[in-house]
Amino acid sequence: MFRFSCIFLIFFTPTHAKTNEMYGEITHQCVLDIVQKFSLVKQDTVVDLGSGNGNACFYFSPFVEKCIGYEIVHERYQKSIENNNTTNTEFYWKDFTTLDTIEASVLFTHSTMFDKHLLQNASDLIHRSPTIRIVFSQKALPNMGNRERFYCKFSWSGHVNTEIYVYRPHEEL
């Protein structure tokens, strides 16, 4: 029992985000559902905060002008570079909390391993980036106002749909 508790605590600590442990991925079908339901277009630029091995960018890339992934874990970043056979996808080994703004119309973040501090930093970055028209996040983002909910399957969810929060941060109410 004690051993299991220790593993549980390690898994959910904020420092986990800097390890190489895998925690699940968005599926190709989920990206297709997002593209169709939310009318992503070829002129869109998608930014993926915490891009991991790059799968979300690889899945979005055929439908958008450009996809940019930011990853802090070097091994994951390196894997995304090695697997990148697209012409419109870029990856950066960078802590997104150091960015002043981003030039994108769509922001995606898996965010399952983000603590409250990282979630707040993501929200602040979105508010400083006026070109973002729509945001998709696995976790609720603070200070983002009204949100929709969208459901699709992730690699760990099997036949169960996973909730994604959808925000339109600069939309006039």
In short:
This protein has 173 residues and is α/β, with parallel strands linked by helices.
How many E strands? 7
Shape: globular
What is the C-level CATH assignment? Alpha Beta
Q: End-to-end span in angstroms? A: 51 Å
- Major sheet: arrangement of strands: 3-2-1-4-5-7-6
Please give the radius of gyration in angstroms: 16 Å
Q: Which fold name is given in CATH as the topology?
A: Rossmann fold
In terms of per-residue confidence, which ranges show pLDDT below 50 for 5 or more consecutive residues?
A: 1-22
Helix content: 25-40%
CATH level-four homologous superfamily name: Vaccinia Virus protein VP39
What would you say this structure looks like, in words?
This protein is of the alpha/beta class. The chain has one domain (26-167): Rossmann fold. The protein is built from five helices and seven strands, in the order ααβαβαββαβββ. It has a seven-stranded mixed β-sheet.
